[in-house]
Amino acid sequence: MSQKGRLYFDNAATSFPKPQEVYEAMDRYAREHGGSAGRSAHAQAVAGSRLLFDLRLSLAELFGGNEDRVVLTKNATESVNLALFSLLHEGAVVVHSPLEHNAVMRPLQFLAKTRGIKLIDAPDDFHGRMTPKALESVVGKYSVDAVVTLHASNVHGLAHDIAAFGEICRRREILFVVDAAQTGGCMPVDMINMNIDALCLTGHKGLLGPTGIGALLLSDRAAEKIMPLIYGGTGSESGKEQMPDFLPDRLEAGTHNTFGASGLLAGLQYLSQRTVADVMKYENELRRHMIDRLRFIVGVTIFGDDIGPATGVLGFTCPLSPSDMAYLLDSQYGISVRAGLHCAPRAHKTLGTFPQGAVRLAPGPFTPIEAVDEVADAISDILRTKS
Amino acid sequence: MSVCVLIFRSIHDVLKAEKMMNEQDIPLRLIPVPKEVSADCGMGIQVSCEELDKIRNLLSNADERLLGVYKLEGTAFKPVREK
What we know:
A: Aspartate Aminotransferase, domain 1, B: Alpha-Beta Plaits
């Protein structure tokens, strides 16, 4: 079924559409190359190896990392797991924000149970964010080993002050793990200036690539300690039955997702032309316009209505249940939004919207501003007639 | 000109070295690893042996990557010891 004429407001889950170049690059790679990267010396395999190398260079350039420490994963969830499972030792004390997604909370809770790590939920501000002041007071009180936090919330779009957190971690030599699933490609992130040890990214949201490809960028000290989650062939040191000890091979067993890599590289090339700053500015205009429209709809409560760094994402509740509102927007107006808990029960508990959740509006870099008016009109119509 | 082959740990390292050498305009060619040389990543970099000092200098910050250097003597490649 064609999606023509629909309005897609679910870019926080997966961006859509992608830049035209992404579709073309994936089609071209699949038809013209298609070899196994890192495995052979024939031309098709070398094309795959070059693709992965160029992808690492592009990611390192955009995020201030080093291409030798860019590990390709399937998404941010895998990147978070890879970092947490090997960098958190038995009994480690870990601070997280009150807005975490289950990509962070589930591995942390598992490690709390199996490895005895201690979790500290930092106190939040009015919008659920962890402030640098709150983090400072927590690290002053406990002997903290790691801070693990998302950059911006997938529920309401507001961002943490990652640079200030990084500075606190640097001063006290605390490991700093950042889940940038929501901000990669739509807010600036710099590993060096922000003192990030492990930056967890996915390719299918703001980086405008396909699903199934992500990355973990590591600092020098994190790279030294990190161990694989999975073991297997790498195309290097094949005579040995142990994993190679050098990166990125140490963490990349099994054949790579080269089709995904070709799309992600094209997404990054699009972003380097348009610039992340421009995407952020545009998405914030959309966000501002959503707030301006929604605040005049009787019964709508907006989450994340604040001046401060944010992505384009906004959450709201209304007299209808979030799932009913999402269903009516979808079935009667052709508008795609996401309702419910957004895999972030912790964030919804913090915001007081648990267990019913909220409706999330997530426009993207290609959403026309008039689409915001259409969505606001639809919400207004639904509330007038149904509630 | 005598022919040398540089062998690396992985294809990532081969491509990284290729990039560094291209930036210094050092002539090179990627080749399948010769049969006398055991290196399973499959690819090596063929260069002129006259460039070896320059290359070693260039790669000195990343020297753990360079597993070995081989020189073509007759029809076989022989290891070259570092001076």
